[in-house]
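[SOLVED] Need 3D model of a four-part complex

Original post:
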Amino acid sequence: MSEQKISSSRSIQLPLVTSMAEDILGCKWSLAVLQLVRQGICRPGAIERSLEGLTTKVLNERLRKLTNYKILQRQAYPEIPPRVEYRLTSFGEKFIGILDQMAALDREFKDKMLDD
Amino acid sequence: MSEQKISSSRSIQLPLVTSMAEDILGCKWSLAVLQLVRQGICRPGAIERSLEGLTTKVLNERLRKLTNYKILQRQAYPEIPPRVEYRLTSFGEKFIGILDQMAALDREFKDKMLDD
DNA sequence: CAGTATCCAGACCGATACTG
DNA sequence: CAGTATCGGTCTGGATACTG
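Solution:
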């Protein structure tokens, strides 16, 4: 009974959050954007200026995705010129908390790589 | 001083492990493969048979990547027919431990999604 | 300033066939 | 059984131009 065929293309049933992580982390700029927002750089313009190579289109794709996942929360101020700010939700905080743990694994990882 | 330009294309200096996570999770089958290995299904043939849709080529790409990152360890037995087994390294255990924490966030995530 | 629409090059992944 | 090679479709993300 050790080898029952797993569902179709979507592998083992992965927890939602895990496939979310796949989705988020698989996208090139997501982590960088999250780091910036966490640092308080939360306006699209500022984010774009902070990340060389990131374009408006891609940034908006990421922001939308992160917002859909409720990792970020969008707040628009009805002003001229328009102002928008993105914040981490409390859920988002927990999510990147996990990412931080990955960072914590970092030193160990480097050692691992050294004694090749 | 709040907006110094970040390096070129590679964003904030992300911890190695984090970009590793990006790399791993961005690949479609990596998580499924890891789950299987953890369950003791550690031979390429068995893995391939367990994951419908996964092809030899892609599986080997994943296995190599996971091995390069020292998440998996390859052991070949000099027999005929050849036998190969992949194991989680201790580092790999820690790595998927973090993935498990994501799974732990799962219930909360679902709730979050419900009260949309 | 925030956000959308097009277009296009390249990466990725799946199918298939093949070697040791 | 383990692993490589090749080819082609698809999807992503980068460049650019544009609207409110």
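Edit: The CA atoms of residues 25 and 31 of chain B lie 7 Å apart.
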